[in-house]
Amino acid sequence: MKPPSDKSAGRRKSRPSFEPLQPHEIELADFFVRMAGILGVPRSVAEIYALLYISPNPLDFDHIQGRLGMSKGSVSQGLKFLRGHEMILSVKEQGSRRERWQPTPSLAASLVALLRSQFLPALEQAQPSLQRVLADAQQRGTQPEVIERLSRLNRWNSRALELAPLLLPPPGA
Amino acid sequence: MKPPSDKSAGRRKSRPSFEPLQPHEIELADFFVRMAGILGVPRSVAEIYALLYISPNPLDFDHIQGRLGMSKGSVSQGLKFLRGHEMILSVKEQGSRRERWQPTPSLAASLVALLRSQFLPALEQAQPSLQRVLADAQQRGTQPEVIERLSRLNRWNSRALELAPLLLPPPGA
DNA sequence: GCCTAGGTTCAAAAATTATTGAAACATCAG
DNA sequence: CTGATGTTTCAATAATTTTTGAACCTAGGC
User: Fold this and answer.
1) Size of interface A-B (CB pairs under 8 A)
2) Domains parsed from chain A with CATH numbers
3) What is the pLDDT of residue B164?
4) Rounded to whole angstroms, how far apart are CA atoms B139 and A123?
5) Residue B147 — pLDDT band, cuts 50, 70, 90?
6) Shortest CB distance from A132 goes to which of B27, B125, B132?
7) What sign results for the dihedral spanned by CA atoms A114, A115, A118, A123?
């Protein structure tokens, strides 16, 4: 498309050249990556979050990609994930269509939102199933031990569902 | 992998022939599998647990393998995992070296133990790292915003570590 | 002791998940 | 409107995780 026609004079953008992560940044990223791993959140997502978390000011797409040495696709998907879980927010400066990202004020709230989004659907979907399983067991005169277990599971599930709305992202935002 | 040619009726234990899971059992298994998935616990492990959970009496190795149609290796590893996290316990009947498995009385306790075993090591290992990262940031005169974030992270980590011992598996066991 | 039921290990295969990058898309400054 | 910039999509690939199965242990009955 664009052969190196000599456009270089005025534009400093010729070589993005971002510096790789510093040791202290890597250390923090490792922490986030590890914690994220437990919840099944991919490495790339955790790295993006860590970078934003330790950066003094919001970063744009290219900086994230450049400093983490990661593909456009991964950055895009990572931001999508973080956005979707309200873990980051963008500061779009006017005069530019570029978005700059920073972590949401409360990591705690972010985590709650993330957990909710993972468990809630499972709990909701499970409700009827569990009731069916229990009814089934009762009907066929299963041993009381098992009935008891299944009842407890049902109660748990119900309680979790009731409690869930209380865990709405706190108002302060 | 072809099945061994049938040696007619020669074998005493010729056909273990376990019946596959019933619909209600499958439904429960699906529930456990889904929940386990969120915590990164493999399907096979969740299936084993579900089967034991819904079974009126303890099951031995061969029953588990047979009913779930799963390899020896998986059953062995699955039981190892569940045992390791104290989610099941065995009733060895005398006169036989065979172990029979059943779920631990409290699923709640099991889950707590599981979570602890995942997060605790990460938290412990992170402690010095996080402190280093914070010190580093302070030293280089990073923006207060970031210092604040990192401090909070440190506090969290410390608190989590302090709280962890309180979550010891309850005495009743 | 020996033999074998009962189980474990672990390298290889299969299944699943994450990442890449090029093409498509969208938006806004001009 | 147009074109460059900024971003998303998604099929292909790479990386990781799970499962398998056959070889290998091991305890206990004989």
Assistant:
1) 92
2) 16-104 (1.10.10.10), 108-167 (no CATH)
3) 86
4) 47
5) very high
6) B27
7) negative
- The pLDDT tens digits for B23-36 are 999 999 999 999 99
Instruction: Assess A136–B contact: CB distance below 8 Å, yes or no.
Output: yes
Q: What are the angstrom distances between the C-alpha of B89 and each of A153, B44, B102?
A: 19, 18, 6
**Which of A94, A155, A85, A90 lies closest to A123, judged by CA?**
A155
The minimal CB distance from A133 to the residues B27, B107, B122 is found for: B27
Give me the pLDDT at residue B61, please. Answer: 97
State residue A15's pLDDT score. 52
Question: Contacts by A84-88 with C-beta closer than 8 Å and gap 24+?
Answer: A85/A110, A85/A113, A85/A114, A85/A117, A86/A110, A86/A113, A86/A169, A87/A49, A87/A113, A87/A114, A88/A49, A88/A52
In Å, how far from its chain's centre is CA B142? 42
A152 and B107 within 8 Å at the Cβ level: the answer is: yes
**What are the distances in angstroms from CA A125 to CA A76, A119, B33, B75, B107?**
30, 10, 13, 28, 20
Angle at A36 between CA A30 and CA A42, to 5 degrees: 95
Angle ∠(A3,A69,A101) on CA atoms, nearest 5: 100
Per-residue DSSP letters for A36-79?
HHHTT--HHHHHHHHHHHH-SS-EEHHHHHHHHT--HHHHHHHH
Q: Which residues touch strand C (CB under 7 A)?
A: A 40, 42-45, 69-74, 76-78, 94-97; B 37, 60-62, 72-73, 75-77, 79-80, 96-99
pLDDT of residue B12: 43
C-alpha to C-alpha distance for B165 and B131, rounded to whole angstroms:
21
